[in-house]
Amino acid sequence: MSDTTPTAAPERAASLPAQSPPVDPAETAKADRSAGLSWWRGDGGEGAKRNLGLLATLVVLVVIGILTRPDLYGDASWVWGNTLTILKLASVVGVVTVGMTFVIIGGGIDLSVGAIVALAGVWCTTLATQSYGAGGMIFSALTVGVAVGLVNGLLVSYGRLVPFIATLAMMVAARGLAAEISDKQTQVSNDTFINGIASTNVLGIPLLVYILAAVVLAGWVLLNRTTFGRRTVAVGGNPEAARLAGINVRRHTVLLYALSGLCCGIAAIMLTAQATSAQAAMANLYELDAIAAAIIGGTLLSGGRGTIIGSLLGVIIFSTITNLFAINGLSTEAQNMVKGGIIVAAVLVQQVQFRSLTQFLARNRATTT
Fold it and tell me: TM segments (predicted)?
């Protein structure tokens, strides 16, 4: 009777799953902080750090304005009105810069954006086009912009021309065609709807600012949330790798220049509304402003990297500088010299950052080997 059979309790206990060790909340928080720091120090936080730097630059410009003109910045109503003036000044160039950002990220450059704006503006203000009303004028400007952009894209992708040469030739040709169409005269816009775009305010904010916001939002979604945006970065970063991955590089390049032309068509309507007229000399040096804003915003000239928000901040910075020079009575020549210096400084900073990144990757490869 003393030799009893073993019970099944130990077997059931042994079949229970092993419990995981208790989680230390302090260790979890430490891991989360480490992950956040690694993101901030890595490529993911590069854009955020750059945008914060641009915001800090804007703050510095505002402080300079306060120190140089305290009599104006002491008036709250003037400050609000001046802010709207800066945004309105940035609206047309900002729309052009969105298209330019896509082209540069895709590994190209477009020197003809100002000429496309002039040609689209002149074309949509001819008497024949104005006879179709506001809809005909808008359709004409957008169509001309897209058509010229397509020609640029075809010359670059299928004609194998260097983007600098192709768009430089288009800049000269488009200006000449605009002068021929307008007979070197200023063409007045008689359409009240088109002219009202520049003078209309919605909730106290100019309609031009809303148009800029809509284009920037659409560009941000297209670049960051669509296959088109990912392909743009891939084509600009390494065209051969993008081709091997199945991307039609030539067709995508054509679409990028067409997108830039579309933005120029929108800008032509906005600029025509502001001036209530169009001429072959309008939008002069807009290519300089757009390229400069994109570079200041962190878009890499060699392609493969850039942000729409950074480009927008670059446009606002240049508009603020222009406004700052105006309220202090400084000349346009001095303003252009400052812009040129900012462009050179931005490119130098990009080269230093790219060189540092290359050296860092090389050290990592050597360590791994």
Answer: 51-69, 89-122, 134-155, 161-181, 202-223, 254-273, 308-327
- Phi, psi at 278, each rounded to 5°: -145, 150
Q: Which of 125, 131, 101 is nearest to 113 (CA)?
A: 101
Assess contact for 330 and 135: CB atoms under 8 A.
Answer: no
Q: Is residue 364 part of a domain?
A: no
Short-list 105, 87, 106, CA closest to 313:
87
Give mean pLDDT in consecutive 10-residue pieces for the chain, a chain of 369 residues.
Answer: 50 51 57 52 63 85 88 87 92 95 95 95 92 93 96 94 94 94 90 91 93 96 94 92 92 96 96 92 90 89 89 91 86 77 72 56 56
Q: CA 33, CA 57: separation in Å to the nearest integer?
A: 28
Of residues 280, 273, 91, the one with CA closest to residue 192: 273
Q: CB atoms < 10 A from the CB of 160, how many? A: 9
pLDDT of residue 269: 95
Which of left, alpha, beta for 299 (phi over 0: left; psi -120 to 50: alpha)?
beta
Q: Cα angle at 42 between 348 and 213, to 5 degrees? A: 70
- Dihedral, CA of residue 261, residue 262, residue 265 and residue 267, to nearest 10: -100
| Cα separation, 267 vs 283, whole angstroms | 9
CA distance 151 to 153: 5
Is 294 part of any domain? yes
Domain count, the chain: 1
Within-domain flag for 26: no
Residue 360 to residue 344: CA distance in whole angstroms: 24
CA-to-CA distance for 232 and 260, rounded, in angstroms? 13
Domain that holds residue 193: 45-357
DSSP string computed for 7-51: PSHHHHHHHSPPPPPPPPHHHHHHHHHHHHHHHHHSGGGHHHHHH
> Contact 290/100 with Cβ under 8 angstroms?
yes
